[in-house]
Amino acid sequence: MFRTITDLFKRKPPAAEPLVLGLEAVPGWLGEQENSIQGELEETTAPVRQQITDALHDIREAVRALTSVSEASVAHPRLKSISRSALPEFLKSVGQAVEKEPAGETEAFYSTAADILKGCIKATRGQGKYLQAAFPEEMKEFRSGLKNLGTGVNRMTEAIAGSRARLDEVLKARDVHQKLVRGREEYAAACEDADAMNREIASGSDELRRVDEELGTLATGPHHAEAGKLDLRIDALSERQEEIAREYTTIRTNALHVLRKAEKVMEKNLDRTTAESIRQLENALSSRVPDADAEITGLLTRVVPAALDVVGRREVTLKNREEQHLFSDAKVLRSELVRVISLHREVSAELDAARAERASLAGYAEEQRLRERRETVQAQVAEATATRAADRERAAALHEADEALREDLAGRLGALAGSEAALQADDLPVCPPAEDCE
């Protein structure tokens, strides 16, 4: 009962004031924390530095004593022999180690002291282990100084490790702050890009409406009905042109199959002149229907009789009815090609004339220009819409990351301050909505 009553009157330590920082004040506060941590390290390690300095003084005094020791003071002959070989090496190793002088900032001082400690330990575990029996008092003084040096270095190791850990937390907090600021800049840029796409889409949509209105007006013009009739004629002629081209391709494919085999026979029989003529005919029979037949008919006059000759001697076999028809007579292949080429030329001329007539209609050229413009603007609007979607998706991801980074930074600031921390930062503005421009 008495303990309960006394507990009620116990004063609780006052809670640490919560840390409240604006986003722009974070870098300065973190800089102050860095300076504070470094200052605390200097203050904490000041007595340790003195301990290390005193220990080094003791070690050097012990080394000085070992340097002036007389061999006559060693009683046992065997110990004299050991000391004679081990002592110089030991003094050399320790002398090299302790000739350095720790100085400067804490980290530099610590690094030098640690190197001295390593050198002395190495010497002690080497030649020094043989000197304990020969020079017990001097080695006792040396080991005492070495122990004090080790204790000082260990204390400084702990202090520096703690300081480094805290400084590392400062660096992590600074990194989170930079990510937060950079993310907010990228968010603003993404929203600005999305808004620019909104304006581009709106402008394109307005232009599409104007183009559609103009096309609607032109559709009532006198040229439109006549253009429609010509469109039907042009479509029919285009289809007929394609049919003739397919027929030409069939003839060409079957003829080339036989001609290439005939060419190989001519090469085999060393008739290179005829073989070259066949190659020229093969090149003339291009993949597209030629405009004229003069070159082909001249080559056919020279080549077909030779091809029929090797077919007749059964050096070339005709594989299907089309090949048999085309090479049944010297005139068949020529007449078929001339017929198809002439027909294609006639239909192409009619098609060109129909297209020219349509292009000459009043209003037709303007209608075509508007249709082409409409396709271009539609493509631009589609591209802008896709870009806007990507910008808004990027902005949404950055908005989500902003909340996580703010929470992370507040937690890190609180850990460094040893209290609750609140980060004062404006909420990110909402990106302009896409539906406003649809």
UniProtKB/TrEMBL annotation:
It comes from the Archaea. This is Uncharacterized protein.
